[in-house]
Each structure stands twice: as C-alpha cells, then as structure tokens.
Design goal:
The complex is a heterodimer of chains A (about 475) and B (about 70). Chain A has about 475 residues and is α/β, with parallel strands linked by helices. Chain A is about 40% helix and about 15% strand. Chain A has one domain: Amidase signature (AS) domain (Amidase signature (AS) enzymes). Chain A has helices at about 10-15, 20-40, 50-65, 105-115, 150-160, 175-180, 215-225, 230-240, 270-285, 300-315, 315-320, 330-340, 345-365, 395-405, 405-410, 440-455; strands at about 45, 75-80, 115-120, 165-170, 185, 210, 255-260, 290, 370-375, 385-390, 395, 415-420, 430-435. In chain A, the strands form 2 sheets. Chain A has an 11-stranded mixed sheet with strand order 1-3-2-4-6-5-12-13-9-7-8, sandwiched between helices. A two-stranded antiparallel ribbon of chain A has the order 10-11. The longest helix of chain A has 24 residues, at about 345-365. The two termini of chain A are about 20 Å apart. Chain B has about 70 residues and is an all-alpha fold. Chain B has one domain. Chain B contains 2 helices and no strands. The chains are: A alpha/beta (about 475), B mainly alpha (about 70). The interface of A and B includes residues 83 and 349 of A.
C-alpha cells in the first residue's frame, strides 16, 4: 500500500506512531498527482515545493514532541474560493485573474494552526454557480461530470490526490460531487463553520465543510474547522458534540426517517435500490425506521432560487458592470437575470424559508436522522444536458443534482453524504443523512456505524497512472 | 410565456433601473433566463404567509459567524 492510499485517520495514526513522516506522505501525494492529474483536472494550482517545506516543518515539530493533532502533516486541497494569504483565489474564473488574498480565511487559518499541509487549490464551477465543474473530470469515469461546484475537491480526494479537501455548499456543492465521486461530504449546520475569507455565492445559503474518504475522517476535519479556541463555532459545536451515541456501531434507539415523498420521486432505479438497501442496513444495526412526509416540497426550488439568484447577483454587481465578458456564458446570464428579481420575490423566499424551517423542526420531533439519496442519478456524461425520467418528465442535469440536496441548505440542517455502493456501470451512489440543527455528532455517528460495518461499499477511484 | 414575462426590449430599462446597463445582444438571453427564473420563484405567491417574518437575520453589535468576504 502506498501512503496516499491511507485514510486521513490511518495516516495520522501512522505519523503519530512514527511509522510515516509528513514528508513521505506528502511526496506520495505529489507523485500521485503527477501520475493522474493530467487525466482529472482537479487542481487549479499545486504547490509542490511549499507543501514539501510545510511537511518538513511538520516532521521536525512532531519529532520534537510538538504534535498538534490528527491533521498535523496531512496534505489537503482547498477549494479555490477559500482565501490563503499570498495566494490567488481564482474562483476558477477569469474575473479573478489578478487576485491575491491578503489574509487567510478563518478555515485556512484553523487548518494551518492544526498543522495541515496545503498541497493545492482545487477547481470550482465558476464562483460556485453551477453543479458540474466542467474543468474537472469524474474520478471514476473521465467522460462524466465531476459534479459541483466543489468538483475539484471531490475528485482530488476520490483519486488519492489529497487526504482531504474543503468544499462549499450552497445548494449541494459539497454533497453532490462527493456522491458522484464515491467520497464523503459534510455540509455542517448553517453558521457552524465560519465563512470569513470564503468567496460567497449566496450568503444565506452558503456553508463550508470537509470532503474526505471516510466519515471518520470528516469528523476529524470538522473538529478543526469549528475551532478549538473560544469562539462562536466552538461554543456551538460543544452542543453538537454532546450526543450519547458517539461512534458506536449499535444504532439501537436511533430513529431514522424514511421519506414517503419527494426524495425517492424521479430517482434512478439503481440509486433507489442501493439507498434503500443502505437504509435497511441502518435498521440491521438497530435503528428504527419511521416513514415521514416531507413538507412544502412544491416550494423548495422556488425558495432556493428566490434566495440564491438575487444574492449572487448582488455580490457580483460591480464586476458584472465593469467586466461581464470575463464570466463564462452560463454564469453571466444567470447573474444578469438576477438583477430582475424583485425585493418582493426575495422576501417571499425568506418568509417561505421561515415556514420551511418550522415544518422541518416538526418532522424532527419524530426522527433523529432523515436518510435519502444525495442525488437522484449517477454522474452524467459531460455532454449530457437533461435527464429523462420514467414518468416522462425531463429535467436539466443541474436541476436534478440540486433537487435532493437543496432542502438542507434552506433549512440549515447538517447533511452528510456517504458512498453506499456502485451502480451496474461502476459509478458511485451516495446517501445523505440529514440531522437536527447542530446534530453533526448524530449523523456522523450513524454514518460511521454504516461505514464500519459496510466499509467495502466504495474505495479509492481506480484511476490508472497515465 | 405568461402575461408577467418580460419581452427582450423590456429587459433593458428594468435592468438599468436595477443598476445594470445591458448591451443589445444581451437582451434575448437575459429575458429568457429571467422569465425562467420568475416562472420558478413565482410559485411562492401561492403561499399564505400570515404573520411569518423573513428568515434573514441581523446581529446587533456582533459580527455573525457566517460573515463572508
């Protein structure tokens, strides 16, 4: 086994035991990137020399007894919306051609303080405004989309080009590419992870979170992202951590909601079968399955668009006036059209969100976790624009990808996507576990129990060196 | 097309009023996208909000944890 094949937890354990150095680990990742990145396009930039220097420093510190924790000496990728002092934050856009971040984002600073080694910045769909990340290819099938908008981060982790990565999620942009590439993605509770220094798409819907190979790894990264020093995130996460179930493999007492509507409508048969099988596995581990109705489903897309479209346009207002030609065509026209959404429509979306939050809170009176597919289909071919469903309806690929993930953005609820199997063509399928506000420990616990007992569901993507 | 849809020639003054001058060649695609967006978010008009307040939040005297750039 090569060092890059280790999970984050496995690498951390090996480093802690002295059997692996951060330099050996980083070199292994850099060699892997050299071998496969040409086929994948996950990275905007790879900082090989800086990563080697940071790894050497980490090695010296650890040898001197200054071990900062499980992320110390671990190579990571950051979505290129996340500021790192002295580096460009390109947002994968020509608009940011001359950008240099003057300071670290809060998340980058926390990861740096934890000793993580930045190996590079990963591609996003331009300014996170899309679900495919066209610069990047799916780790499992290069003729298929990576998903997005954190496509580079998900592919980098899936292909062994980073031990973990950060993504952002406004309608599903962590979970969608995680599901399509067979890795784990966690969208934390709204507000739990600070977004200072992260380029926004839509302030009221944006989240940052980890993309990892395992649920166990996601928990390790979340610990750091929420901050260990006194601060807002830390205070909130103290509440989130107090879940008596921990990471036990026995889910007795856990009530898992199974949606009777919406989440299994217009879903590919193989995705439905695999996710329902995964839910049955949770029951086998002791969980009680409870049928639940999903509220206000006819207003999900309207509420999401009513918030996101005008907020995105507001952020880009100045550059849209001065240099609109620098945006890609699909993003430009959405930003321009956003100027025509009225304040009345925006307020209706905000009021709808209030209603939705209340209705979902009632749902969580009956269950601890909601289990559902992350996306209704596997990764689409890169040239595919629409999905045709068994009921005869047609949906754009983007609309289908965001359909099942957007409710957790609107409600702010934490949602964990984890790989639960492959379809007949060998493409990954993801299941999401949605929890109560600050219920990260519960969804991570349930996901960890699944992973520990069905750990063979999906592994590293089989990308051959080329 | 519904009666509420904007024609391409109507897009220009409305966009300008919102602060964005649009070149003539942008009017057709922007009108089509804006009408599509409006067709989706218009569904919210069917909701009876009664006393429901917007979800947007404001923190007096404290920077919210989710502050962005």
């Amino acid at each position: 086994m090569q060092p890059y094949e280790l999970t984050l937890a496995g690498a951390a354990k090996a480093i802690g035991a002295g059997g692996l150095s951060p330099t050996e680990l980083t070199d292994s990742y850099l060699e892997r990137i050299e071998a496969v990145e040409g086929q994948l396009g996950a990275y905007v930039t790879v900082r090989a020399q800086a990563a080697r220097e940071a790894a050497a420093r980490a090695g010296r510190d650890i040898a001197a007894g200054r071990h900062l924790g499980p992320l110390h000496g671990i190579p990571m990728g950051l979505k290129d919306l996340i500021d790192v002092a002295g580096l460009p934050t390109t947002a994968s856009s020509r608009v940011r051609a001359d950008h240099t971040a003057s300071a670290d984002s809060t998340v980058a600073a926390r990861l740096k303080a934890a000793g993580a080694v930045l190996i590079g910045k990963t591609h996003t769909h331009e300014f996170a405004y899309g679900l495919t990340t066209p610069q990047t290819r799916n780790a499992w099938a290069h003729d298929r989309v990576a998903g997005g908008s954190s496509g580079g981060s998900a592919v980098a982790v899936a292909a062994g080009e980073a031990a973990f990565a950060l993504g952002t999620d406004t309608g599903g942009s962590i979970r969608v590419p995680a599901a399509l590439n067979g890795v784990v993605g966690l969208k934390p509770t709204y507000g739990l992870v600070p977004l200072k220094g992260v380029t926004p798409l839509s302030w009221s819907l944006d989240h940052a979170g980890p993309i990892t190979r395992t649920v166990e790894d996601a928990a390790l990264v979340l610990d750091v992202l929420t901050g260990q020093q006194p601060g807002d995130g830390a205070r909130k996460f103290e509440r989130a951590r107090r879940d008596p179930r921990g990471f036990d493999e026995d889910l007795t007492g856990l009530r898992v909601g199974v949606p009777a509507n919406y989440y299994f409508d217009r879903v590919e048969p193989e995705v439905e079968k695999t996710v329902r099988g995964a839910i049955e596995h949770l029951a086998w581990l002791g969980a009680e399955l409870v049928d639940v109705g999903i509220p206000m489903t006819e207003y999900i897309q309207a509420t999401a668009w009513g918030l996101m479209v005008p907020e995105a346009t507001a952020y880009h207002e100045r550059t849209l006036r001065t240099s609109p030609e620098l945006y890609t065509a699909d993003v430009r026209v959405l930003l321009e059209a956003g100027t025509l959404v009225s304040a009345g429509d925006y307020l209706r979306a905000q009021r709808s969100r209030t209603l939705m939050r209340s209705a979902w809170a009632e749902l969580f009176d009956r269950v601890d976790v909601l289990a559902a597919p992350t996306v209704p289909c596997v990764a689409a071919r890169s040239d595919q624009e629409t999905v045709r469903w068994a009921d005869g309806s047609t949906e754009s690929v983007t609309d289908s990808y965001v359909r099942l993930s957007a409710p957790a953005n609107l409600t702010g609820l934490p949602s964990l996507s984890l790989p639960v199997g492959l379809d007949g063509a060998g493409l990954p399928i993801g299941m999401q576990l949605i929890g109560r506000p600050l219920g990260e420990a519960t969804i991570l616990g349930a996901g960890r129990a699944f992973e520990a007992t069905r750990g063979d569901a999906v592994g590293l993507a089989p990308v051959a060196a080329g | 097309m519904t009666t509420a849809d904007l024609l391409p020639q109507e897009v220009s003054p409305w966009a300008l009023r919102a602060g964005l001058p649009l070149a003539a060649e942008r009017l057709d695609p922007v009108a089509a996208t804006a009408n599509h967006v409006q067709g989706v978010i218009g569904a919210l008009r069917a909701l009876d909000f009664a006393e429901t307040a917007p979800a947007a939040t404001y923190f007096a005297g404290e920077e919210p944890a989710d502050a962005a750039v």
